[in-house]
Design brief:
This protein is an alpha/beta fold. The chain has 2 domains: 212 residues, Rossmann fold; 90 residues, Rossmann fold (3-Layer(aba) Sandwich), CATH 3.40.50. The chain has a 6-stranded mixed sheet with strand order 1-2-10-7-8-9, sandwiched between helices. A 4-stranded parallel sheet has the order 5-4-3-6, sandwiched between helices. Helix 5 links the parallel strand 4 and strand 5. Helix 8 runs parallel beside helix 10. It is globular. The model has no long low-confidence stretch (mean pLDDT 93).
């Protein structure tokens, strides 16, 4: 099931006071192969777009559903979105995170009052499928495979089109697919000729492999500083949505992502995490074509030590 345009528009009303309307700015790099624009979701209160989906999904829950608190599985950003709203509502929040989750994101969840349970990667991934975790009785908020979450994410499309109606392409980080499919569902209704691409890094690009095979596939996963996207596989339901909505997946290497991250900091004074810089790297490589290309800078929650290392690399 995909979110309808009406659901996306309704979600926009629910996000008032939770998510902000982020700016769309031109990348200050005129040598680029396209006219690149940045949708700065790194400026959200939690430093990530995830506040949109989390806030909309939680707003749709009844008082009875919220009574036992909320539970999510996340490497960091969705966890912060759910914890942020849980704190506002005064309810418990539990997060199941992989052992590889960045400490900067774990600490952020704990500052918001969330409880973090670290587990092996496989056990974490199973939590997405089961939509539950043993011993925790709380309502599960899925990070991506949820129409309400996707509808919240889809509000980004409304803002892009208001600021740049003539957009030719949008490049969106692919993690679980909730961001890409949410934006694409609204875009296909409002500007059907706009090209819509997922962005992945070559160390973890399951969508590109799945699209090439015509079915959901597993890939070798290599952890890196690009921790907000990429995984070992694609949920079958999300793959079906991607096939229906997207024009393809663009894949770049870690060096290209690091270079884009440095360029964002130098030219626009934007701090992005690896996932947020990945669409920019794709656009800079010319993979999204010419014309007006919007890159969704999905978040800026990067560990400062990692950021300093990347910025000082030659």
């Amino acid at each position: 099931m995909l979110p309808t345009l009406a659901a996306v528009e309704e979600a926009r009303g629910r996000l008032s006071g939770a998510a902000i309307r982020t700016p769309l700015v031109r990348l200050n790099y005129r040598e680029a192969p396209a006219e690149i624009y940045l949708k700065l979701e790194n400026l959200q209160p939690i430093g990530s777009f995830k506040i949109r989906g989390a806030a909309n999904a939680i707003a749709r829950l009844s008082r009875e559903e919220l009574a036992g608190g909320v539970l999510t599985a996340s490497a960091g950003n969705m966890a912060q979105g759910v914890a942020w709203r849980a704190r506002d509502l005064g309810i418990p929040c539990t997060v199941v995170a992989p052992e590889t989750a960045p400490e900067t994101k774990v600490r952020a969840v704990e500052r918001l009052g969330g409880r973090v349970i670290k587990v092996p990667f496989g056990e974490w991934w199973d939590c997405f499928e089961r939509r539950a975790y043993a011993g925790v009785k709380a309502h599960f908020v899925h990070a991506f495979d949820d129409p309400d979450v996707m509808a919240g994410n889809g509000t980004i499309a409304l803002e892009i089109l208001e600021d740049l109606p003539e957009v030719d392409a949008v490049v969106i980080p692919w993690g679980g697919g909730g961001l890409a499919c949410g934006i694409a569902a609204a875009m296909r209704e409002l500007r059907p000729n706009c090209k819509l691409y997922a962005a992945e890094v070559e160390t973890a690009a399951p969508l590109a492999a799945s699209l090439a095979a015509g079915a959901a596939r597993q890939v070798d996963y290599q952890p890196s500083f690009v921790d907000g996207i990429g995984g070992r596989g694609v949920f079958p339901a999300m793959f079906e949505r991607a096939q229906q909505l997207l024009d393809g997946s663009l894949v770049v290497g870690l060096e290209q992502v690091a270079a884009a991250l440095r360029l964002l900091a130098e030219r626009n004074r934007v701090i992005a995490e690896g996932a947020g810089a990945c669409p920019v790297a794709c656009a800079l490589e010319g993979l999204a074509g010419a014309g007006k290309v919007v890159c969704v800078v999905s978040g800026g929650n990067i560990d400062l030590a990692k950021l300093c290392h990347i910025l000082t690399e030659s």
